[in-house]
Amino acid sequence: MTVDVILNGRATTLEARSDEMLLPVLRRQGLLSVRETCGIGVCGACTVLLDGEPVSGCLMLTAAAAGREITTVEGLDEADPVLRAFNEEHAFQCGWCTPGFVLTVKAMRPGDDVREALGGNLCRCGCYVKIEEAVRKCAT
Amino acid sequence: MDPRVTADLRYSVEVERPGMLHAAFVRSEVPHARVTVVEPPDLPDDVVLLTPEDVADLGLYGCQVKDQRVLADTARHVGDVVAAVAAPTRAAARAAAKSIEVAYKDLPAVTDPLAAVAPGAPLLHAQAAASAKDAVSIDVRPIPGTNVCHRFRIRHGDVAAGFADAEVVVEEVYRTAGAAHAPMEPHAALAEWEDGKLTVWSGTQTPFNTRADLAGAFGIDPERIRIIAPPMGGSFGAKTFVRLEALVAALARKAGRPVKAVLDRAEEFVTLNRHPAIVRVRLGAKRDGTLVAKEVDCWVDTGAYADCGPGVATKMGYAGVGPYRIPHVRVDSLAIYTNLPPNGAYRGYGAMQSVWASERTMDLLARELDMSPLELRRRNLLRDGDVFATGEVMHDVHFDDCLQAAADAVDYEADPRGKGLCVLLKGMQTPSRAAISVERTPVGFVVRSASCEMGQDVRQSIKLMGAELLGCEPGQIEIPDPDTDTSPFDTRTTSSRSTYMMGRALREAVADLERDGERGFGEVRNEGGLDPDTGQGIASTHWHQGAAAARVTVDEDTGRLTVEHVHAAVYAGRVVNRAGAELQNEGSMLMGLGTTLFEAVEFADGQVTNANLSDYNVPAFGDLPRLTHELIEREGAEVHGLGETALPPIPPAIGNALATLGAHVTELPITAERVLEALER
Questions:
Q1: Is the ipTM value over 0.95, yes or no?
Q2: A59-73, B107-121, B124-138, B283-297, range with the lowest pLDDT
């Protein structure tokens, strides 16, 4: 089947099986920031923004994204304040989970609790202290 | 901007080759059985099936004991790979793997290390030959006719006389569960044969060890094997030695096309875990707190294959002595086969399990002596010129500074209630060798090194050291991925050795470049090793040193343990890469926190029952306590490795803090149930 979406600001037609999740479909589009890790929606490494809200690409049916706006880290430019804050605070080690964190932070609203908002993103390298600093930096 | 932030870094899972097939594995459903693989009549024509008969010509492999077949004709754990398929897509490969029938002829299984060394226990390996010395820094000492693939001993002084001389003796047995490394990126490897030459792209910390082991298994010259190691999305020891490489190489050989494998999350839990261990400590002292004698016994569950279990058992053995002057020491550490998935290198390499036991026992002794745990440690810490239990003379030691810094961070001396301390010594791979090359280019320099990138930022550390030595900007130095065809030899990227060893080799290489003008080569070796029968020799030419302190509270009704503050102090000598070093401390501490509070691979009849990231929890943001740390530097000091040092002291610091509140828990993780049980005792 085909699914029309706005992908990183451009009208795009995705080719997908009817039971296929967004994660493999976006990777086939060359969007390698979306990463398969747990496969069950608990780690956040395949986070994408759907109409600005973070969702797990491994649990989101591609068909359900029809007509909606999908953002991945490839759609951000280097002036993006969240990317810059992560870079400046060195809030990453292996970098695998970083895109998921960046997108979740982008969806945060003023007053959101950092630890609660990022509770669904796992970083096994253990960069939480520096990620928290990066988020504070974005807020100011 | 760093490519890891913009998602421009390409990992091992993303390597592709034209015409490649995708692999899937058929895994044993039982812990111990003779297996027969049955090819289904309707297997699609484009699926390649690899059975044990296809690999009958291949030799055994294993980094320290050659005990593993490329495909198991006898399955030794649930999840052992008994057949493999390759197909044009991953989905087709998985479907084909599911269609393969396996007939099992069950054998008796043993899944507990104590049962595995009891008389009459079923044997896993009739006989296993020690591996070539390429990957081993120890002489392996199997006990024939048993499941012990290695036993390490320390014999220092006269322990019987020491205990006779002791005025106070304490003794306890401790257990630690197995843990999953759970790197975010799973294991991935791709193999391609061309004109009898094998190339493998693999997310690995050990390209040269992998090349040597594959050369043995395939019976070809190591020069005909090329290992390229792209960056990894985390490893923590999981991606060491041969994991998927032999399987994809054998599949590619049969298919005549490149074959790639990427594990799914459940497969990670049956591929390599951390050694569960039982450690018994007996410690004797004079009334004034002077330590006189210590006995340490370790039962180290290495699972179905030895992997580096002998090395882990050795390190667990000597780390269990602790950074103390003790005239009489006996250590016996056994690496034991069981019908569980193999256990291998895990950040800390065995130190955590015995430091947990040793440092909890120090607090038991302090209580018996009615002495401050801080004062007891201070009185016995190794100082420069002291002799360790291995007979080596200690040099460049700063245990005192680490311990004091940790104690001060939680205001330990003002009020020790609810607080705990730990100080540790951890060795670096000895002997080992590191080489590096530098070439001048029109725009800067190319530095070639087999130090593998897994998030520890080793490339940035090499660039920073290189820039200082070469008088250029770090950005003018290019570092290609490790490649055994072009990178000079390095023992491996483990044991927190890269910055220290590569830094020294780089100094040589730059001096050589200055002589040559165009290119330079540098190599350093550290010599030593321990006699496995006596534990005498040089355990480490360079000591990793650290301490931790914790402050905790406990809910006596529910058993819920809350870590309010944890602090680590690590001796760095000189910090090369500030952000990278801080992240090593923070990451080690968080991993230590998971190990302390909830991480455990659970089994039922040899089957992992929590093989996913929902049932197996790793620390999340909500688990973050107040977490502080420091890197201790000294003017003119040598660089010290610090990639793992802050992990092992976390569990004992928390356990000791909890004990001051009335709960002496001896088993990790410290679950609420265990706290309640301990409070009731």
A1: yes
A2: B124-138
Q: Does A68 touch chain B (CB under 8 A)?
A: no
Domain check: are B424 and B569 in the same one?
yes
How far away is chain B from the Cα of A68, in angstroms, using its nearest Cα?
A: 23
Facing residues of B48 across strands?
B86
Domain boundary among A43, A73, A103: A73
Q: What is the largest CA-CA distance in chain A?
A: 45
Domain, as residue range, for A62: 2-73
pLDDT tens for each residue of B472-498: 999 999 999 999 999 999 999 999 999
Q: How many distinct structural domains can be found in chain B?
A: 3
Q: How many domains does chain A have?
A: 2
- My answer on whether A10 and A62 are in the same domain is yes
Interface test with B, best of A27, A129, A131 (most B CBs within 10 A): A129
Return the DSSP state at B205: S
Q: Copy the structure tokens of residue A109.
A: 């609203």
Q: What is the pLDDT of residues B532-556, one digit of tens each?
A: 999 999 999 999 999 999 999 999 9
Does residue A29 sit at the B interface (CB-CB below 8 Å)? no
Residue B41 burial (CB count, 10 A): 5
Place of tokens 């969240």: A82
> CA separation (Å) from B290 to B168, B296, B359, B363, B386?
10, 18, 16, 14, 15
List residues bridging with B175 in a β-sheet: B278, B667
If you count them, how many residues does chain B have?
Answer: 681
- How many Å lie between the alpha carbon of A64 and the closest alpha carbon of chain B? 22
Q: A121 CB near a chain B CB, below 8 Å?
A: yes
A65 CA to chain B: closest CA distance, Å?
23
CA-atom Rg of chain A in angstroms: 15
d(CA B298, CA B108): 25
Would you tell me how many other CB atoms lie within 10 Å of the CB of residue A77? 7
Interchain CB distance below 8 Å, A128 and B621: yes
The amino acid present at B341, given as its one-letter code, is P
CA–CA separation, B632 and B568 (whole Å): 10
Residues of A in contact with B457 (CB under 8 A): 93
In chain A the beta strands, taken as DSSP E runs, fall at: 2-7, 10-15, 47-50, 53-56, 69-71
Q: Which residue of B has its CA nearest to A43?
A: B613
Q: Which domain holds residue B229?
A: 12-109+181-268
Q: For residues B631 and B410, give the distance between their C-alpha atoms in angstroms, rounded to a whole number.
A: 16
Residue type, B130: A
Question: Are β-strands B529-530 and B537-538 bridged in parallel, bridged antiparallel, or unpaired?
Answer: antiparallel
Are residues A17 and A68 both part of a single domain? yes
CA nearest to A89 within chain B: B579
